[in-house]
Design brief:
Strand order of the largest sheet: 1-2-3-6
Order of helices and strands: HHHHHHEEEEEEEE
Shape: elongated
Number of strands: 8
Strand content: 15-25%
Number of helices: 6
Oligomer: single chain
Distance between the termini: 84 Å
Structural class: alpha+beta
Amino acid sequence: MSEERRISSEDLALFAMQLLPDEERAEVAAYVAQSAEARKELAEIQGDLATYALTAEMHAAPVPARERLMRQVGREKKAIPIDLPPVADAGAAETGTTVQTSAAVAEPTDSEGRSIGLGLGGYLNEDNQPKRGVAGKVLPWIGWAVAAGLAITGGDLYRGREALRGTVTTQASQIDHLAADAAAARQVLETMTDSSAMRVTLTTKGVTAPLPTGRATYVASKGTLIFLASNLAPLQPAKTYELWLIPAGEGQNPIPAGMFHPDARGNASVIMPPMPKGVQAKAFGVTIEDEGGSATPTQPIILAGE
């Protein structure tokens, strides 16, 4: 058994414009009858078609086409009124006056002598009227053709506009990310090259080479800090390294400056952690804390430098 054909949005659009073959039109009609979602989509398509038809600009037909149409209209046969003689009234019948009835009127003929039967009121019968020409058959469909063309063109323009809008949104987001990255990179460069930066090397006392080492570059006025570490020992599960700034002022508590985990080679870094501005540093230290960090340093201090 062949698989049932899936009715798509394009099928519904062609159905709304009456451009489907009879068999497919019946299939789509049956689908619309049993699907509320399809009826809703079809109603939206019909509304769009009506809108496109109303907003279409009127254009004059080309002169050759207009002349051909007028020649075709001139060749078509028209209903011609026939003057009938008066019908005898009752008074004439009483006086015996002879009056010809309409039955005696000769039927009109065409140019080849064929009878063109008369209808009620002396006009050509509807059945005997000449059939419409090509223009009469084609003109009623011109409006639908224009609407269909506008619908297709409008749909393409809508999809193109949405695709362009998505592209612009994506590019704007990428530009924002690049701008943020550029600003961060500029801060790193300014911190590394600032002449007022405090540069401290942190080491572990009493340990033979290769020694765990940390280097901190700190600009107090800007609150910017860059810390690079190497040869760090691996951590136990659920543990983390934490960097601390020891303020120079008396009675001030150490300030947490970021948590980090070393890679397989023992290297780690803390780049631009959130720090208060204007805090002068006396020293820096690194401790091992539980995952998530601590509010105060936990002894022992693994790395220290001032």
